[in-house]
From TrEMBL:
Protein name in UniProt: ABC transporter ATP-binding protein
Its membrane topology: Multi-pass membrane protein
Pfam families, A to Z: ABC_tran
Organism taxonomic ancestry: Bacteria, Bacillati, Actinomycetota, Actinomycetes, Streptosporangiales
InterPro entries xref list: AAA+_ATPase, ABC1_TM_sf, ABC_transporter-like_ATP-bd, ABC_transporter-like_CS, P-loop_NTPase, Type_1_exporter
Localization per Swiss-Prot or TrEMBL: Cell membrane
The organism of origin for this protein: Nonomuraea monospora
Length: 596
């Protein structure tokens, strides 16, 4: 944390406050600054009330009472107003910050960062700290106002006796200790991020219907709960100990302050006894001593809040740096995505390792998919098929090597523009719990209301029969979470497939085991349909890539690639691979025998 982080965040949050409501921001600013003079004004008036009464000056007494009342009333009313308005602004600043964080993370191309534990930890620390961030600007304004107020109180104290200025210095040791207390708390909060993320995940497992079924059968619920509770207790314990350590130091410093305050009162008593101070001065000291303590405490809290905002701002700074370094602010397109493919897609010496690992999942893959062709990808579990699909969509980028689209590196295309011409269904598809029309239409958001297209997609995915059985057809709410109709896993998969078929003019159709829950004949029929559509879309040069463990389906593809441990083990047409007599031929014959 640096002073620069704190200042930058204070300026940024005040700018957000202005953006949220200009007039209220200025009004609150004026009220906060007014507070500085009102405390001294009240004490000053009290002194004159006593001195005027002592001297039997009725006019002076009335004027001092009126001034004191006005000053005190403005102080209380101003504080109430500014406090409520500031809370409202703070909520709006916090919302704007949350939005900024989400948008910054969403602008980072690929999803690689979402699979990095350090990124997820940072984002969690940042999101847990948005309240602290949102307070930074107004805390800084409040600190300035109270410091001015302390200055005015001191000026009045010095007027009675210069030694009384020491009362202001007596609070100084509290400042670093209060700062230390918030630092310890923030460090504890940051240190508990990972255990609390684990705890949340474990509890979600028990509350989410899909994993909850397996947990029920395995009888692991109580154990998971115990484990989650232990993680929570560990985190709560760490935070509580940090709070106690912080408070311990502060108590000592406040004790010192009260010793000094007693000394100030004693000194004023002595001055009064010697006739060097008036009764009004004694009242002034008593009043200011109370006010000064409140002002000092307020200034210390405000400064500690600004410092805490600076600590969280360090995570904010990290996120902006990460986003900038990873292309979130790069000019959108260096090369426009073609409207049609003419040569096709080439993987040139592509290697890939998942973030945080060194193991190559794809190892020097060289492969050409001609425009207008269908590609079948086969290989045992873990061979790298889904990873290859993810690289083709731009969800991840090759660690080395390149993917060329009509000869242009995929990195040179705007990731969003490339994603807009890709479609398909992935292995871990979404079960969108919305009305059927939206669950399918979401595959092509601009056409979410195009009923004819939705019906066409459902029919191509063989899901029209499912909708016919639903009580309100396309308007039927899906999923139990909102009291809708529940589907079987295979039916959900057909809906997901229909969603993937919404983009009729896509250049790349990716099907990663899209029909694993369907019987082999249904999968065969569907892929026959897709292969035919690929051939029909010859003028767009669209490519279809299918991952499947069923050779009876894959054999229809124009080109087949066998992946083994991230490498291309064999490739060619079905006939070429059968003729080669390698692993593909063996596995094809084994499956053919099994289905005979
Ligand atoms: N998000 C990830 N982070 C780290 N490693 C991963 C990740 N996803 C997959 N892997 C690893 O990459 C390798 C290839 O996985 P991939 O999902 O591409 O295989 P696959 O051929 O599609 O397998 P399957 O037939 O089981 O779907 C596996 O060894 C897996 O452990």
């Amino acid at each position: 944390m640096t002073l620069r982080d704190s200042t930058r965040m204070a300026r940024h949050t005040l700018a957000l406050s202005l953006r949220a409501d200009r007039r209220v921001t200025f009004a609150v600013g004026a009220l906060v600054m007014l507070q500085a003079g009102l405390a001294a004004g009240t004490a000053h008036a009290q002194r004159h009330v006593v001195d005027a009464a002592d001297a039997h000056l009725l006019a002076g007494l009335l004027a001092a009472v009126a001034l004191g009342m006005l000053s005190h009333a403005l102080q209380i009313i101003g504080w109430r107003f500014s406090h409520n308005l500031r809370n409202d602004l703070r909520d709006r600043i916090q919302m704007a910050l949350e939005q900024e964080i989400t948008e910054t993370a969403a602008r980072i191309p690929t999803v690689t960062h979402l699979e990095r534990a350090d990124f997820l930890n940072r984002i969690t620390m940042l999101r847990r700290g948005t309240l602290a961030l949102s307070k930074t600007g107004w805390a800084a304004a409040h600190a300035v106002s109270t410091l001015v107020g302390i200055g005015l109180s001191l000026w009045l104290l010095i007027g009675v006796h210069p030694a009384l200025a020491l009362l202001a210095l007596a609070a100084l040791p509290i400042l670093p200790l209060a700062n230390r207390a918030t630092r310890l708390q923030r460090e504890a909060l940051d240190a508990t991020v990972e255990p609390l993320r684990r705890e949340g995940l474990l509890h979600d497992l028990c509350l989410n219907p899909d994993p909850a079924k397996e947990i029920w059968i395995s009888g692991n619920g109580a154990e998971l709960d115990r484990h989650a509770r232990a993680l929570w207790e560990e985190a709560a314990d760490l935070e509580a100990r940090a709070r106690l350590r912080g408070i311990g130091g502060e108590i000592g410093a406040w004790a010192f302050y009260y010793v000094m305050l007693s000394g100030a009162l004693l000194l004023t008593g002595l001055l009064l006894a010697r006739g060097q101070a008036t009764l009004g001065d004694v009242v002034l000291i008593i009043s200011l001593a109370g006010q000064l303590r409140a002002q000092q405490q307020s200034a210390i809290s405000a400064i500690a809040l600004v410092a805490d905002g600076g600590r969280v701002a360090e995570h904010h700074h990290w996120l902006l740096g990460y986003a900038a370094a990873n292309g979130a602010h790069r000019p959108a397109t260096t090369s426009p995505v073609p409207a049609r493919l003419t040569t096709g897609i080439e993987l040139r010496d592509v290697c890939f390792a998942y973030p945080g690992t060194d193991t190559p999942v794809l190892d020097h893959v060289n492969l050409t998919i001609p425009a207008g062709a269908s590609l079948g990808l086969v290989g045992i579990n873990g061979a790298g098929k889904s990873t290859l699909i993810k690289l083709l969509t731009g969800v991840h980028r090759p660690t080395s090597g390149a993917i060329l689209v009509d000869g242009v590196d995929l990195r040179d295309h705007d990731p969003a523009a490339w994603a807009a011409v890709c479609t398909g269904t992935l292995q871990d598809f979404l079960k969108l719990q919305t009305p059927v029309s939206e669950s399918v239409g979401a595959g092509d958001l601009p056409r979410i209301g195009d009923t004819a297209r939705i019906e066409r997609a459902l029919s191509r995915a063989g899901a029209d029969g499912i909708v016919d059985l639903l009580p309100s057809g396309l308007r039927t709410q899906l999923g139990r979470t909102f009291g809708g109709a529940e589907l079987s896993h295979g039916q959900w998969q057909r809906i997901a497939l229909a969603r993937g078929l919404m983009r009729e003019a896509a250049l790349l159709l990716l099907l990663d085991e899209p029909t694993a829950a369907l019987d082999p004949q249904a999968e065969h029929d569907l892929f026959e349909l897709f292969a035919q559509q690929t051939r029909d879309s010859v003028e767009r040069g669209a490519i279809t890539v299918l991952v499947s463990h069923r050779f009876s389906t894959v054999h229809m593809a124009d080109h087949i690639v066998v992946l083994s441990q991230g490498r291309v083990a064999e490739q060619g047409s079905h006939d070429e691979l059968l003729g080669a007599g390698g692993d593909y031929a063996d596995l094809y014959r084994t499956q053919a025998l099994a289905y005979r």
